[in-house]
């Protein structure tokens, strides 16, 4: 089945390579590539002629490349552009994807989780953990993830998606302590995925939906930022314990490389570790009569008012 896109949607974007090259060129100053400062410029970044000279291309050819009128550049040309523009690995990979792979959108295939993998995720008890796909659909999670990130057990399947949680969930800006950082990285991950074949129609539809429903997503999408999630810092805010500062690591599942396990860990002896432990304790006291987060907040309030013990009927 062919995917039908609205005019102006991600599925109909023309000259993506040229748009990306212009964005990258505008991010590099002459000084960064050893050129003299010639004063104020009408637009920031390198001029076409400067970049083409540094890469070893004619200005005419490079101009046609940005305009989408040239044949696909060779790997050698792409490597030279990557070197001159000082691209990081994610930017370089995205440049090659745009130049070498025409956009082909295919129907979404079923993504069965390998037998036992969901039990592995659920068995991680000391750290929030998620299993996600390239479209940031959450396929499996553990108990701490429902307490810290989102109550996935109660969410509709469609909403079990980290991009929707970041841009469309009502409490997103409260849940993510550094929402701007989370939003930018989320857009960067989708930017990579939407041009890394095979591209499933569900991923294109997700980006189109976010472009339509979230002005913040649209603004970030226009920056052409790309991001490969590997490891780093992440802070969540929970109403019962406050800010939880964590470090995350990612692991691709062998044999199912489109699936990625993300584990968030607290520094030993830190306030974050104590906060996670407190959330587990409060959750174990609950009875499940209300949502996970609501119940934990209620129990935290009871503990604060009665530190000698809480009795739950």
Give me some keywords for this one.
5-stranded antiparallel sheet, Beta-Lactamase, alpha+beta, disordered N terminus, 7 strands
Report a brief summary of the structure:
This protein has helices at residues 16-26, 48-55, 59-67, 75-84, 89-100, 117-122, 143-148, 162-167, 172-175, 179-193, 201-213, 215-221, 271-285, 292-305; strands spanning 105-106, 129-132, 138-141, 199-200, 231-238, 242-253, 256-265.
How does this model look, in words?
The chain is elongated and about 70 Å long. The protein has two domains: 10-103, lambda repressor-like DNA-binding domains (434 Repressor (Amino-terminal Domain)); 117-302, Beta-Lactamase (2-Layer Sandwich). The protein has a five-stranded antiparallel sheet. A two-stranded parallel ribbon has the order 1-4. The protein is an alpha+beta fold. It starts with 15 loop residues before the first helix and ends in an 8-residue tail after the last helix. The protein has helices at residues 16-26, 48-55, 59-67, 75-84, 89-100, 117-122, 143-148, 162-167, 172-175, 179-193, 201-213, 215-221, 271-285, 292-305; strands at 105-106, 129-132, 138-141, 199-200, 231-238, 242-253, 256-265.
CATH hierarchy: architecture of the largest domain: 2-Layer Sandwich
- The number of helical elements comes to 14
Specify Rg, calculated over alpha carbons: 23 Å
- Assign the structural class, choosing from mainly alpha, mainly beta, alpha/beta, alpha+beta, or little secondary structure: alpha+beta
The shape is elongated
Percent strand equals 5-15%
> How far apart, in Å, are the first and last alpha carbons?
54 Å
**Overall CATH class of the largest domain:** Alpha Beta
- Unreliable stretches covering 5 or more consecutive residues: 1-8, 287-291, 296-304, 309-313
**Strands, total number:** 7
The pLDDT mean sits at 87
- Specify the biggest β-sheet: 5 strands, antiparallel
CATH topology of the largest domain: Beta-Lactamase
Q: Could you give the order of the helices and strands?
A: HHHHHEHEEHHHHEHHEEEHH
Counted up, domains total: 2
Helix content: 40-55%
Going across the biggest sheet, name each strand in turn.
3-2-7-6-5
